[in-house]
Amino acid sequence: MRRQDSQDAPLFGEDEESSAIRNNKIRHPLASFFHLFFRTSAIVVYLLCDVLSGRFIVCMVTIILLLSCDFWTVKNVSGRLLVGLRWWNQVDEDGKNHWVFESRKTHHPNTTSSVESRIFWLGLIICPIFWIIFVFSTIFSFRIKWLAVVTMGLVLQWANLYGYVRCKVGGASNLRSMAKNYLGVQIYKQAMKKTEGP
């Protein structure tokens, strides 16, 4: 697994001082638009499917096409342009899968825009939450025919989210160590509160 460290693609609120130095304008308006367009369109079509068309197949194909366009756009275009991250899978000569997670390694202050970074991460995190809600609502309302569609929406959106989080914070070992460090800090804070007491 190959990964380059990134110091210019902020995740929510990270690097507040250096974000003031960065260009706060949207430098890639087309990529920013399509980053949100396909994913929100799939959600809107799903929500309005009964109003727009009573035919299940038409709605299903439209949603799957929008989700596929979103997956390709986010993975191949907007991640690279908006935050300088990319991930992919390659198969070697032995037939083994290798996941590659990269981030742009440059120290130029105007490489990414903090506005574009926020657009990217908010779109990447909020939309899978909708698909999780749709999965549960489909199960509890017994609309089983929609289960394949909402599951596909969840899987495609979650795959991009997982890939970009891995690009941002590193491999699985880094994710585990971050979780352990966070838990350690929280336990330490709680212990200190109890020792200070009333």
Secondary structure blueprint with pairings:
Elements: H1 16-21, H2 29-47, H3 49-52, H4 56-83, E1 85-91, E2 97-103, H5 114-140, H6 147-169, H7 172-196
Antiparallel strand pairs: 1-2
Low-confidence spans:
1-22
Placed side by side, the strands forming the largest sheet appear as 1-2
- Range of helix content: 55-70%
In DSSP terms (H or I, runs of 4 or more residues), the helix count works out at: 7
Q: Name the beta content range.
A: 5-15%
Overall structural class, as computed from helix and strand content, comes to mainly alpha
For the sheet with most strands, the description reads:
2 strands, antiparallel
Q: What is the number of independent domains? A: 1
How do the helices and strands follow one another from N- to C-terminus? HHHHEEHHH
Shape: globular
* Rg computed from alpha carbons, rounded to a whole number of angstroms: 20 Å
Distance between the termini: 51 Å
Total strand segments? 2
Average pLDDT over all residues: 77
Description:
The protein contains 7 helices and 2 strands. The N terminus is likely disordered. It has a two-stranded antiparallel ribbon with strand order 1-2. The protein is 67% helix and 7% strand. The chain is globular. The longest helix is centred in the middle third of the chain and has 28 residues. With 198 residues, it is mainly alpha-helical. It has one domain. Keywords: Membrane, Transmembrane, Transmembrane helix. It is a multi-pass membrane protein. Pfam families: DUF846 (PF05832). It comes from Echeneis naucrates (Live sharksucker). This is Golgi apparatus membrane protein TVP23 homolog.
